[in-house]
Amino acid sequence: MSLYDDAVLVLKGYEGQEELRQAYLDHLAAHPDGMWTACEDGHITASALVIDPARGRVLLTLHKKMRKWLQMGGHCEPQDTSLQAAALREATEESGVAGLTLLPGGPVRLDRHATPCAWHLDVQYAAVAPAGAVEAISDESLDLRWFAYDEVATVADESVVRLLEATRARL
Hints:
The chain is α+β, with helices and mostly antiparallel strands. The chain is 32% helix and 29% strand. It starts with a helix and ends with a helix. The relative contact order is 0.21.
């Protein structure tokens, strides 16, 4: 199955945010290249909030280009076999944490936002860090830091706060 086909199936199966979910599906129907950075009208991206439920904290990256505290994530790549695989790859690459596992049940949220390259139609997952996880900053980050749940709203924007809320509701 292609990444495009996987994305359509994932979105069709996603429950919630009906209007936004349909906008993602409409985008893909109108743009066969809608998974890729080359699609200037916007493209599907995959992200994951790295969470440590045992210690009540999340790992955020101070994104080099966006200059904001965000969850790990980014563009899909040709080797990604699914949106889940893309989200897990991005989370692992950007956090440096080995052994991340995605929360079951598929995406936690959808979030559409403008970026310097195009609109990102982000499919957001949550990744649980293993006990004793050690992070390592990537070249895409200015900083990488754990934040207690109640600190997130003081450093990150509403989209990250909503992602944390949805993730905590699923735990």
